[in-house]
């Protein structure tokens, strides 16, 4: 079995981590735009979508119009939505709601702990939630 990987540049995620650090009480959601080659997901950039949840401190619901527009724009450029990134008010592990979402949208889910800024990527493989490796390119600082 080929390892499933998420590949992205530090410069792409650095500003997202800073935004989360400044406002850790609200879950944020971003769509990773890029390309896929078998089990390798290359994230070129992220598009932020508004969290339209009534309880944004404990869950996210991405603005459907944002998802639609991101999909259309990505497709025009030869890209696709290859990842979802969102923050949690705790450890970067998928919640029950996340797992339900992962079943509907089977791309890597990158979850960021809004307090420590640690992050992990997850997918469902053979019906099981699996932590997958993130390869960070051009990381200049931790």
Overview of the molecule:
- It is a single chain.
- The longest helix is centred in the first third of the chain and has 13 residues, at 10-22.
- The protein has a single domain (5-137), classed as Cytidine Deaminase, domain 2 (3-Layer(aba) Sandwich), CATH 3.40.140.10.
- By secondary structure, it is of the alpha/beta class.
- Helix content is 25%, strand content 39%.
- A hairpin with a 5-residue loop joins strand 5 and strand 6.
- The radius of gyration is 14 Å and the shape is globular.
Q: Brief overview, please?
A:
With 142 residues, the chain is α/β, with parallel strands linked by helices. 25% of the residues lie in helices and 39% in strands.
Straight-line distance between termini:
30 Å
Q: What would you call the structural class?
A: alpha/beta
Shape: globular
Taken together, the total number of domains comes to 1
- Please report the number of helical segments: 3
Strand content: 35-45%
- CATH fourth-tier homologous superfamily: Cytidine Deaminase, domain 2
In CATH's first tier, which class applies?
Answer: Alpha Beta
Low-confidence stretches: none
The number of strands is 7
Main sheet, how many strands, which sense, barrel?
Answer: 7 strands, mixed, barrel
Secondary-structure element series: EHEEHEHEEE
Q: How are the SSEs placed, and which strands pair?
A:
Blueprint: E1 5-9, H1 10-22, E2 29-37, E3 40-49, H2 64-76, E4 80-88, H3 96-104, E5 109-113, E6 119-125, E7 128-137
Parallel strand pairs: 1-3, 1-7, 4-5
Antiparallel strand pairs: 2-3, 2-4, 5-6, 6-7
């Amino acid at each position: 079995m080929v390892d499933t990987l998420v590949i992205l540049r530090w410069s792409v995620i650095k500003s997202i981590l800073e935004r989360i650090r400044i406002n850790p009480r609200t879950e944020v959601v971003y769509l990773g735009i890029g390309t896929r080659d078998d089990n390798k997901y290359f994230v070129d950039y992220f598009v932020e979508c508004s969290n339209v949840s009534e309880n944004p401190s404990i869950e996210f619901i991405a603005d459907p119009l944002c998802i639609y527009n991101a999909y259309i724009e990505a497709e025009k450029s030869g890209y696709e939505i290859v990842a979802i990134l969102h923050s949690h008010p705790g450890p970067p592990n998928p919640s029950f709601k996340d797992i339900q979402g992962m079943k509907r949208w089977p791309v890597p889910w990158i979850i960021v702990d809004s307090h420590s800024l640690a992050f992990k990527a997850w997918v469902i493989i053979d019906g099981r939630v699996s932590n997958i490796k993130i390869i960070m390119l051009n990381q200049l600082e931790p």
